[in-house]
Amino acid sequence: MRALRIIVLLLGVAHVGLLLYVVSLRFAYPVDAEWMTGSIRDTVDRVKAGLPIYAPPSGEFISFLYPPLYYWLSAALARVTSTFVACKVVSVLATASAGVCVHRLARSLGADRWWSAVSVLLHVACFSLTLFFFDLERVDPLGSALVVAGVATLLGGETHARTAIAGAVLGLSFFAKQPGLFAFAGAFAGLLLSGERRRALVLGAAGGAVLVLLAGYLEITTGGWWRYYCMKLPGSHGIEPALLSVFFITDLPKAFVLAGGSFALIVWEARALLARRRGEEPADTTTWKSTTMAVLLVALLAASFSLRAHRGGWQNVLLAWTPLGCAAAAAAATRASSKGGPLVEAGALALVGLQLLGLVFDPNDVAPGPSDVRDKAKLEAAVRSLEKEGDVVVTPVGNLTKRMHYHSAALFDVLRAGDPAPADHLAALRERRYAGIFVDAPFEVHCRQRGCRDIDEAMAENYFVASRLEEREHTGMAGFDARPRWILRPRKTPLKGMTWAALEQRRRLEMGLAAMREQQRGEGAAPEVDDVIEDIAAAPDPRWNERTP
């Protein structure tokens, strides 16, 4: 038993070291560690400058689908430090607070001191499970921290004052990220199911007041646009049938200890409730706290599943459930060990050791280094060079151009909902106002909706592929690998009247020529635009069209 505890402790400390290593390098080399972080900083800068987060979509700015709390807190801190540091500090403090609250929640659920400490180590190990988001300029760490803080406050005492505070925190968590609403509803339902009706009313009144007041404020000050971005657009993502099994086949097996602890608490509570309904004495002793926790686990497992099954659902959405899963695992292990004795406890320790071992990762895969800084400098130099001729757009990266522009993910959310492309951006494309457009793919917003076709046609007709950027395998980035890969330049003569198939053929020819030029420049060379590509693609060597027998 002592050897197993030492192994678990060493593996946990190793995860702490891996987390600190990655976080410190992300501070030391200030490059984007995920494709949306630059535009998150743009949003924080808008708040700091007194500009709205939620406004009609335009070529200048389109909000992401997130509520405003993270932006507000980061902007407040950014008044005394850089936006980059402010955003990261908010996420790091949120992650640290979540760890403290996981420990307190585990203790409230009956976990002993050892297993409560293990719950914190499991939470740290979830860094790799949840896509390395603990310190990123994203809303997820704050949303997760507020949920676990609200639950820990609720289950940490008996007074109604504490319940009111918990309700307010859970209501506020929705304005950090939408899964907070699942937690608030789960806490309310759990209290009702456990017979704590007065406590449920206190929690509902406090949380409901926060929801109504802040929602009303946002509705009035944004003219309803916050609702468009934070409620309508997320609903338009839709469930992807191919992703329905991912949560059960990929995610839960990776987090088997958290899943096992969660389902154990849920099953124990369900058995006790069914026994009472049959008029029998339940085999498992329950309290309002354990019943509420079981319902919360069901609610947040459902939240993670539904978000994971949506189009664009990545592992970071698991942060809605994992902190509570860590506390549940500690409580379940304590309970099982007390009933089953040393052999059961040894088995639990072995499983936790395997879980920690399975979540170990190579930190160099997601940690930036000097080469990433050099690549960012090359990209920035290419942008500044083209900005001498006019406005430049970089669609998959934010916080780079002198003038702020939309992010491709935010634009795609609008178009996927069936809404039209921003009129000012379409006009700028058709009038060739941009000196250059840096894109991830030449047909970047390709989809069935009319707005996607409008954007793709306007780009293909009025801009040609002028350069292929060098692409390295390692970038120090987590999540979706969307980087500026191609530079588009305005055509001297727009391709009016061509069919879509002809436009695609011309674009692919230009891509091939740009890729050839990139190979000729050699590895490590700075990106260059080649305006001759337009002429070569328009009048290719006639021998290319000769048919061979």
Describe this protein's structure.
Helices cover 62% and strands 4% of the residues. The chain is built from 21 helices and four strands. It has helices at 2-28, 37-48, 69-77, 83-108, 113-129, 140-155, 160-173, 180-193, 197-222, 225-236, 246-254, 256-277, 288-309, 322-340, 342-358, 370-387, 408-416, 423-430, 450-462, 500-521, 532-538; strands spanning 391-394, 434-439, 463-468, 486-490. A four-stranded mixed beta sheet has the order 1-2-4-3. The chain is elongated and about 85 Å long.
What's the SSE blueprint?
Layout: H1 2-28, H2 37-48, H3 69-77, H4 83-108, H5 113-129, H6 140-155, H7 160-173, H8 180-193, H9 197-222, H10 225-236, H11 246-254, H12 256-277, H13 288-309, H14 322-340, H15 342-358, H16 370-387, E1 391-394, H17 408-416, H18 423-430, E2 434-439, H19 450-462, E3 463-468, E4 486-490, H20 500-521, H21 532-538
Parallel strand pairs: 1-2
Antiparallel strand pairs: 2-4, 3-4
Helix pairs in contact: 1-5, 1-15, 2-3, 3-4, 4-5, 4-6, 4-14, 5-14, 6-7, 6-8, 7-8, 7-9, 8-9, 8-13, 12-13, 12-14, 14-15, 20-21
Offer a quick outline of the entry.
By secondary structure, this protein is mostly helical. The chain contains 21 helices and 4 strands.
Question: In percent, how helical is the residue content?
Answer: 55-70%
Major sheet summary line: 4 strands, mixed
Percentage beta strand? under 5%
Overall outline: elongated
Separation, N- and C-terminal Cα atoms: 77 Å
Strand order of the largest sheet: 1-2-4-3
Rg, nearest Å: 26 Å
Mean pLDDT: 92
Count the E strands.
Answer: 4
Count of spatially separate domains: 2
How many helical elements?
Answer: 21
**Which residue ranges are poorly predicted, with pLDDT under 50 across at least 5 consecutive positions?**
none
Structural class: mainly alpha
What order do the SSEs take from the amino end to the carboxyl end, as H and E?
HHHHHHHHHHHHHHHHEHHEHEEHH
